[in-house]
Structure formats: C-alpha cells, structure tokens
Amino acid sequence: MPGDSFARLYADLIVWDAHACLPLVPGQDMSALERHRAAGASFVHVNVGMDYNPLPQIMRVIAGYRRWLEEHADRFLLAETVEDVRRAKRDGRLAVAFDLEGSMMLQGDLDMLDLFHDVGVRQMHLAYNRNNAVAGGCHDRDGGLSPLGRGVVRRINELGIIMDCSHMGLRSSLEVMEISTRPVVFSHSNVKALRDHPRNITDEQIEACAGSDGVVGICGIGPFLGDDEISTERLLRHVDYVAERVGPRHVGLGLDYVFDQTHDEMPAGQAQDYWYPETQGYDLQGMQIKPPEHLPEIAGALLDRGYEPEEVRAVMGGNFLRVAEATWSAAKGPV
Ligand SMILES: [Zn+2]
User: Fold this and answer.
1) Phi and psi (nearest 5°) for 136?
2) What domains are defined for the chain?
C-alpha cells in the first residue's frame, strides 16, 4: 500500500491501547503519555492501582492524575464517555481513562465501585495474579468467584465499567464471562497456545470472551509474547491466532507499556515473589515491552498480512470502542 494512502487510513483510525502503566506516585507527571499521542493513539487506559497498592495511595494517585490531565487539557482529555473519545480524536488530543488491576481496593464494599466510577475508572479486573476475597488470580489456586465476587460483577455491569479478566484465574474468568450481562475483555493477555504462561489465556477463555462480544487485547510484554521478543511479527502471531479462531472482531491491543521500568512499584512489606513468582520468569526491570511508537507499524503490518482496511480499523481500536459503547453508556441501575 502506497505510503500516503496508509497515512490517510492511519490518521482516520481510532487507535485504542487498553492498558498502560505510569509510576503510581501522587502528583506524578504524566507527560510520558505524549508518546502515545505522538504515535497517533486516540485513547489509552492508564492503571491507577493493583491489589497490592494501599487504598490511600490509589486515591492520591487518582487525584494527582486528574489534576495533571485538567492542567494539560490542550493535549489530553479524561474520557467519561465514548463521545469524549471521539471529541479528543477530532481535536488531536489523547483521551485517557483509568483502570484498576484487582478489587482489594473495594475493601469488600460495592459502593466503592460507584466512587471509583465517579472519579474516572472505566475498566477493571477482579484479581491481580493472586486470590482475594472476590475472585481467583492466575498465579494461584483459583477457587472461582465468591458470593461477593458475583455482586461485584453485577455492580460493574450496572455502572457501565468494562469488565476485564486479565490477571484472573481460569475458573474465575469463565464464571465472570458466564454471568456478565455486558461484553467482557481481556485488556492485556496473550495466547497460551503460542506461549505457555499462566498470564496467557486458553482457547476456552478466548472463545468465551468472543461469546460475550468482547475483545482480547494483545499485550506487548516480551515474556508473554514468547522469548522476551517484542517484534511486530511476534505480536501479530497472537493477533492472527485470535482472529483465526474467533474472528478479527474480537482482537485488539493492550500493550501494557510501562513508562518507567526503573520505578519499583512494590510497597514496603510486600514480597515481589508472591505477586510475580520468580519461577514464572518475571524480570520487571529488565523485560522487553513493545512501545507505543510501534502502533503505526502494527497497523501497516496488519495490512501487509492481508487484513482488510475495515479489519485493521477494528483491531487497532474499533473493537474496544464497540465494547465501550456497549458498556459506558449504561445508566446506573439494573440491566
Ligand atoms: Zn497488568
């Protein structure tokens, strides 16, 4: 495809990155997100806390991120609706929403979901690698959703938060996809059949996700792609696998780019090996992660591989946008 017609196609896309990580520090400068904007991204979901982060830290991180985004409204927008994402795209701004990795910050209280929704959380999963009172994690013996967990899924559906199953155990994720009344995503998870790692997902999970009309966001973390290799070719093998198995309607991108890998997120008193078992090959400071600068290259490579322009549009962001449209618009109340 000639360069200028590709440039026109790319400029017209809603490019959606379903997960990225800035340091979880109150008052954090978020200007690294300029890298997403410069790469033509339209939207990025930014992590505001994991199961091992204390609630006061998470609230202060959200407060600081909100302040920073307000002060940089010429280039960024805290998106509450799909229309906000479209408006940001028209303005050449980057739309941002927050996601939570786990549910321990709810402290067992469903009303906390309403509060997090009010301050900008639009996607969350229920467990982060290890079990908690709500659900099972992918690095634990997953006993499935607790009764509280079923209530959490119900309220997430009611509020219109995107239900995410990354980092969760197999059984809990299947139970979530069974009971969720809205599409379920894996915001940043790769294919277990291509790289056998507990963070990657089985064909059964991929099919259940598609059955909910959800999306698997292929992640740019080297050890989950395989061989700590982040080439576009390697990433597209995971995209191809999901597209061939359940259709290009159910695959997207969640690069999980960590802007500052030197920043140690582990709070005092928490054992890194508990949350990220060394036996699973974690090297948080040293692993390769596909950067946002590669987004245009991914779109071009999809075209070169024979994806139709409409399929490229879907994979680069249209699919996640569809899930957001089916979810964020929810009014509070039973669905
Ligand atoms: Zn994650």
Assistant:
1) -100, 150
2) 3-327 (3.20.20.140)
